[in-house]
Specification:
Length: about 290
């Protein structure tokens, strides 16, 4: 048995060395792919080293954006003794209703700020404060290689500290809903878990679901899950398992799988699907109006 195991190990090493004998550029992309997929907040390790995952994220088109008067940067303390920043749209009327918006793997760019503003304007009658978090501490990527690098540098602990810091910043009486896309979709769910009983609604756009049922059982928020049926990573099997877990835990949820590719709702994505994006947005808006 030992002899067989040693032979197997030797064969594995030869295969790995053979696979990594490409030029330095390809190796760097592979390494970034490995870290890109290990989001840490959920099990995405099955994607490790899959260059196709990085290549599926097309570089975003630039969006010109000037925030409305109500939009401004805020700063708050985090439990790890540091400071964090976010972009906030605060209701003119004092309110304890908050929507936390979490960016894709690109970082807190103009697209996300514009989406946050759109929700703010459409929820004005509900007096909802909308805050776009920055889990990258100021880093914004324009190329997928940089996005992978920044995700590599992102730590679970730091992101949790940023979210916990913002929960404390908005106060114990705040009703909190969360929304995020891709990287931010997974963190939207984690943010709702961290907000505990203050969480009232969680929207996940094609993000990796939480697979730990014990942890998921502590979720207080209702879930709206919006997924892309044409992507092969967070695929229908993953989504169906998540939906079944929520049902078995008696967690209220609505799951919708669109016949589209990953990031179909991002207008800066060359593969943006306007019709599906509009439908998904209306679903999200109606969901939030019911929560507030």
């Amino acid at each position: 048995m030992l002899k067989y195991s040693l032979k197997s190990l030797l064969l594995l090493c030869i295969i790995v060395l053979g696979c990594t004998s490409n030029n330095e550029e390809n190796l760097a992309v592979e390494e970034m792919g490995r870290f890109c997929c290990d989001v840490q907040t959920a099990d995405m390790k099955s994607f490790l080293g899959d260059n196709a995952f990085i290549n599926s994220h097309l570089n975003p088109q630039k969006i010109d954006y000037t925030p409305i008067e109500e939009g401004s940067e805020i700063s708050f303390d985090t439990p790890d003794g540091q400071k964090a920043k976010a972009f906030a749209f605060m209701s003119k009327k004092k309110s304890d209703k908050y929507l936390f918006v979490i960016h894709e793997w690109w970082g807190l760019n103009n697209h996300i700020k514009k989406e946050a503003e759109k929700f703010f304007l459409d929820l004005q009658k509900k007096n909802v404060n909308v805050i776009a978090l920055d889990l990258y501490d100021g880093k914004v990527a324009e190329k997928r290689e940089d996005a992978a690098k920044y995700m590599q540098e992102n730590s679970k602990e730091r992101s949790e500290n940023i979210i916990n810091g913002l929960v404390k910043y908005v106060g114990a009486k705040a009703k909190i809903a969360t929304i995020g896309w891709c990287f931010g979709g997974g963190w939207s769910l984690q943010a709702s878990l961290l907000a505990q009983k203050q969480a009232v609604g969680c929207i996940i756009y094609y993000g990796m679901p939480e697979k730990d049922k014990e942890k998921l059982g502590k979720l207080n928020a209702e879930v709206l899950g919006i997924f892309a049926g044409q992507e092969k990573w967070i695929n229908k099997e993953v989504v169906n398992t998540f939906e079944n877990d929520l049902k078995s835990l008696k967690k209220k949820n609505t799951i919708k799988i669109f016949d589209a590719e990953h990031a179909f709702a991002n207008p800066s994505n060359p593969k943006y699907n306007e019709a599906f994006a509009k439908e998904a947005y209306n679903m999200s808006l109606n969901f939030l109006k019911k929560k507030f």
